[in-house]
Design goal:
- It contains one helix and eight strands, in the order E-E-E-E-E-H-E-E-E.
- It is mostly beta strands.
- The chain has a four-stranded mixed β-sheet, with no helix packed on it. It has a two-stranded antiparallel sheet with strand order 1-2.
- It is globular and about 45 Å long.
- It starts with 32 loop residues before the first strand and ends in a 13-residue tail after the last strand.
- The structure holds copper (II) ion.
- The site of copper (II) ion has 5 residues, from loops.
Length: 149
């Protein structure tokens, strides 16, 4: 009863014969994976301007849904399914499981504003499936940085 499509245990090196139909990212290139009731890693730290890729590495359907009220000021809302508010994401999930990420599917978001971005998985929220992306200010590209060589 094992339904293993093309995930190949998510080995980062398994680039053999990947179908190029998922745009810029491949299922072996991701930042946050998923277990049955957890994001892995639970906390991810990136610098501003980084695009984070979630991959559903689990057989169950999950969502990536930001806690809207907890986002930094001026930050864009993000949720798998492309919803522009937490309420829209929750409503569509309960109506039609909108925003579900199935095994092997990815979701991406680019984080521009420094701060903490808590998010959760709608169907497993009560099971504690939640994570945080911590975005730090970009260093090394600002004008104050001088490189001597
Ligand atoms: Cu989940």
């Amino acid at each position: 009863m094992e339904r293993r499509v093309f995930l190949r245990a998510a080995a980062p090196t398994a680039a053999v014969g990947l179908a190029g139909c998922i745009g810029s990212s491949t299922p072996t290139d991701y930042d946050v994976g998923m277990g049955a009731k957890e994001f892995r890693p639970e906390t991810l730290e990136v610098t501003a301007g980084t695009t984070v890729t979630w991959l559903n590495t689990n057989k169950q359907g999950h969502s990536v849904t930001a806690y809207e009220d907890a986002l930094p000021d001026g930050a864009d809302y993000f949720a798998s399914g492309g919803f522009d508010s937490e309420q829209a994401a929750r409503d569509d999930w309960s109506d039609s499981s909108g925003g579900t990420m199935f095994e092997g599917q990815t979701f991406e978001h680019t984080f521009e504003v420094p701060g903490e971005y808590p998010y959760f998985c709608i169907p497993h929220e009560r099971g504690g499936m939640a994570g945080t992306v911590v975005v730090t200010a970009e260093t090394g590209t600002a004008s104050e940085t001088t490189t001597t060589n």
